[in-house]
Amino acid sequence: MNILLTVHNARPILQIMQDAEEIKQQIIDVADVRFRRYGFGKTTMAEIAKDCFMSAANLYRYFENKEKIGVAIALKCMCEKEKTGKAVLQREGLTAAARLEAFFLEILHHTHDLCSNAPHLFELVTFISQEHPKVVDRHIEALRSFVAEILAEGNRTGEFDVPNIVETAGTVLYATIHFYYPPLVVMNNHSLADLEKAEKAVIALIILGLVKK
User: Fold this and answer.
1) Which helix (H) or strand (E) element contains residue 144?
2) Domain total for the chain?
């Protein structure tokens, strides 16, 4: 991937800013490939620069260190997972109970696929969780808002009886963490089929506590 490094002085400032953002995104994409293949710890800024066909000095113009790139990649991965979950919220013809199960199954599939194809990303996940907890908190808050929306839907249709939607959504996430947190998804090398079976059982128990009596 070749990245254009020069910007003509006469070009509008807005265009220059757009080009800078495009270059940053290309750097993130290139670094993502290297992190997935070699791991976050073993990757250097010099190697990322080489993959981008730019000098290390020029790379530092866009990212002050590898950690900043890692955070950007983590955010990218989390946003992709959030899009997967949000798509379920827009799916028509589902009861609230069916939507809740589908939501967590899709999140599980997305996470399992990521773990299977990019095992070295665990290192980055662990680093971000320890050094940048606010990034993870933002992601969890996004997931909780999606679950809360499903619970609110169940309340509106009379399917659920949830007095405190936000608090209950957080509890549901705690109960299902084994199915969306990457290190736990691959713990003990459970197959996807086994994880699906376990998740369906957990969601079924949760739904029993949510349904209107």
Assistant:
1) helix 133-157
2) 2
How far is CA 157 from its chain centroid? 30
| Residue 4 included in any domain | no
Q: What are 160's strand-pairing partners?
A: 211
What sign does the dihedral 112-114-120-125 (CA atoms) show? negative
Domain span holding position 121: 71-210
| Residues 154 and 192 occupy one common structural domain | yes
pLDDT in tens, 134-192: 999 999 999 999 999 999 999 999 999 999 999 999 999 999 999 998 888 888 788 99
Please state the pTM of the whole predicted model.
0.84
195 belongs to a structural domain? yes
CA 80, 118, 182, 70 dihedral sign is negative
**What is the per-residue DSSP string for 164-197?**
-HHHHHHHHHHHTGGGTSHHHHTGGG--HHHHHH
| b/e 143-164 (16+ beta carbons within 10 angstroms → b) | bbebbbbbbbbbbeeebbebee
| DSSP symbols for 101-135 | HHHHHHHHHHHHHHHHH-TTHHHHHHHHHHH-HHH
